[in-house]
């Protein structure tokens, strides 16, 4: 990703997000929540791409960090009653930051002892971490346990969602185009050779892991205040796999491709839902000939992913990776 005009693009993205947020009342509520899911998916996929794509690790526990951020931010905002718009946005910003920092701390605690591992061993450890978080939340009565936790405030909007997605893209691009980025790519290309050259590979892997976890925690806060009800089951293994698929389908180490894949994989199930007429969207009704898609849409979704992976094993939007730009 070209970084020369990144600040201009970031400011433009904030401006567009703000204008879209002001016009949100004119958007169909169903599509509004789909847009929220797209923005959250972009944050999750881009942050995971820093770990899996640029640093060459294989994390299967990214949804665990999302869960930490979701629950921490929800617990904080649930302590607040009705607030003015200014106060609500201030509290929400602090709650998202707290959720991100809590997830980053969890990433650090997991990363330091485990990121000396490589390949399949690291994938198994991160998978175990995600499941530990889910089981702990299922047994914590203070946050609703398996019953789930109601979130009092629906403070997620288009500005927060896509503004933070733009910040995530900017920070990842800044890291990749810095000295750390060269360290990430050295670890990705040949970890043994990087160590032989005196590079502290564990430091670079932990850094990528902590930054990725931080943004996953922020995405969790956005998710919690969008859905307004969260359960541990919503952050399980399959959710982590969804984000991994976004990274692989977009092309490992290709930020633009990962963003496009996140959009595609969020819209694809909704497109099938529309065809099935499940929600009676766009004038479709349940008695139309395509209503059979209602029971099979996720099978079709899975088959489409298999076809895409067979047709483009290097990623649907992959391209030759360029050297970082100063």
What does this structure look like?
The structure is a single chain. The protein has 326 residues and is mostly helical. The chain has one domain. The chain is built from 12 helices and 2 strands, in the order H-H-H-H-H-E-H-H-H-H-E-H-H-H. The chain has a two-stranded antiparallel ribbon. Helix 1 packs antiparallel against helix 6 and helix 2 packs antiparallel against helix 11. The C terminus is likely disordered.
Percent of residues in beta strands:
under 5%
Provide a count of the helices: 12
User: How confident overall, as mean pLDDT?
Assistant: 84
- SSE string, helix = H, strand = E? HHHHHEHHHHEHHH
The end-to-end span amounts to: 11 Å
Secondary-structure-based class equals mainly alpha
Number of domains: 1
Helical content stands at 55-70%
Which regions have little confidence, pLDDT < 50, spanning 5+ residues? 279-286, 322-326
The total of beta strands comes to 2
Global outline: globular
How many strands, what sense, and barrel or not for the largest sheet?
2 strands, antiparallel
Taking all Cα atoms into account, the compactness measure Rg is 20 Å
Widest sheet: strand ordering? 1-2
Please tag this protein with its features:
326 residues; mainly alpha; two-stranded antiparallel sheet; 12 helices; globular; disordered C terminus
Helices and strands, with pairings:
Elements: H1 6-22, H2 29-54, H3 62-77, H4 85-114, H5 119-138, E1 149-150, H6 158-176, H7 179-189, H8 191-196, H9 201-227, E2 229-230, H10 237-250, H11 255-276, H12 293-311
Antiparallel strand pairs: 1-2
Helix pairs in contact: 1-6, 2-6, 2-9, 2-10, 2-11, 3-4, 3-5, 3-9, 4-9, 6-9, 7-9, 10-11, 11-12
